Amino acid sequence: MRKIIVGAFVSLDGVMQAPGGPTEDPTRGFKYGGWVTPFFDRVFGEEVDRLFEEKFDLLLGRKTYEIFAAHWPYAEGGEDDVIAKLFKGIGKYVVSGSGDVDTSWRGSVLLRAIADVKRLKQEEGPNLVTQGSTELVHTLLANDLVDEIKTFTVPVVLGAGKKLFADRSAPRAYKLVRSRPSSTGMVIAHYARDGEIKIGDTALSTPSKAEAARQERMKREG
To answer: How far apart are the first and last CA of the chain?
Structure first.
């Protein structure tokens, strides 16, 4: 069975939209495309390489797939040559309910529904790594299909934009496997599934009158 690993560049307030450049995804009036690039350094490069060091296939939503398909096949021989060649030789699975997507990029396969992703996950093969693909990641989390999450957290607050997590994510505990700060203040962290959520209680063994009144008010206010 394959693992699904979510790889995400994320701001302090959870935004992951258009990290690479202004034209990447300006939808909904997003003004800060390219907010990650000023934070590139050696550590960032090493951790991106680490994300891709084991055999993997890409699992992408339509919009991110189209961004990648318009860039990486044309990047060989340039600064992005290593990743361009890596992406050329792997599988690219694009999830699109409408099917309105050009899959001519070598190794591309169209998936039409989350049921197709579930079947793919059950097969033998390389891990499935996401990049971007906000709506797809939300669906994967809601269906409890995510095995690992690797975040590149950038020390900026963007105020608005497409975010990594949505309210309908399936509750699940994760453990920190490793973390590393960069010279630019980025924090890279890798999390793996760790079973059910554990809870505790810091309340007094016998609630005070003030606490009892507060709880009653919370019940009334819903």
So the answer is: 43
Q: What token pair was written down for 114? A: 């989350």
Cα 128–Cα 134–Cα 137 angle in degrees, nearest 5:
40
Taken in order of first residue, the domains within the chain and their CATH numbers are 4-221 (3.40.430.10)
Residue 21 half-sphere exposure toward CB, CA atoms < 13 A: 5
What would the pLDDT profile of 203-214 be if each residue is shown by its tens digit? 999 999 999 999
Average pLDDT, the chain: 95
CB 163 within 8 A of CB 15: yes
Q: Provide the CB-side half-sphere exposure for 177 (13 A, CA).
A: 12
Q: Read off the pLDDT band of 110 (50, 70, 90).
A: very high
For residue range 71-85, list pLDDT tens digits in order. 999 988 777 788 999
